Amino acid sequence: xxxxxxxxxxxxxxxxxxxxxxxxxxxxxxxxxxxxxxxxxxxxxxxxxxxxxxxxxxxxxxxxxxxxxxxxxxxxxxxxxxxxxxxxxxxxxxxxxxxxxxxxxxxxxxxxxxxxxxxxxxxxxxxxxxxxxxxxxxxxxxxxxxxxxxxxxxxxxxxxxxxxxxxxxxxxxxxxxxxxxxxxxxxxxxxxxxxxxxxxxxxxxxxxxxxxxxxx
Length: 216
Known about the structure:
- The protein starts with a strand and ends with a strand.
- The model has no long low-confidence stretch (mean pLDDT 87).
- A seven-stranded mixed β-sheet has the order 1-7-6-5-2-3-4, covered by helices on one side.
- It is of the alpha/beta class.
- It has one domain (2-213): Vaccinia Virus protein VP39 (Rossmann fold), CATH 3.40.50.150.
- The chain has helices at residues 12-20, 37-53, 71-77, 98-105, 140-148, 169-175, and strands at residues 2-3, 60-64, 82-87, 110-113, 124-130, 151-162, 209-213.
- 26% of the residues lie in helices and 19% in strands.
């Protein structure tokens, strides 16, 4: 399924809790998170997890390209005790590691540094990324294909990225290795990925995002 950002999707409770976890030390600090598209991303991801798995908390979750985002920690705070954050070794935050992340966010998650395109043997019920694919354009398709092999049967695969960064979303979806169902006629802007629908929420930088995920 493909969806576009809309402020009505924002879960204020999620955003308020994420805001409390803001870390100046790790560089994750937003004074008004509700005005950023990140608020929409996090709300969508949590809603889909809860919709697919209801009250289950024993599911294994992978946050691909986690960086210093506290969202993995927030999921852990909600009771999801099998959360893994993954980021590349020499990415934007080379100093981040499991000990620093967990101490700063008072969490208990696994934090891995590796290049997913080189292969990944673990299996997860949920694999997601938020604002990651636009940073690895050339490796995006390979990364998604590698991740798709790590998704458990009936798992949830959800990815959100900047629509305006020249990413060929149709190609990503068609080749990610997971069946993503979307009906272009019922989802404005999806057929050719050229123009978002009129109701799309844009931020001050003129960027918007698109989310795509599989449905059970």
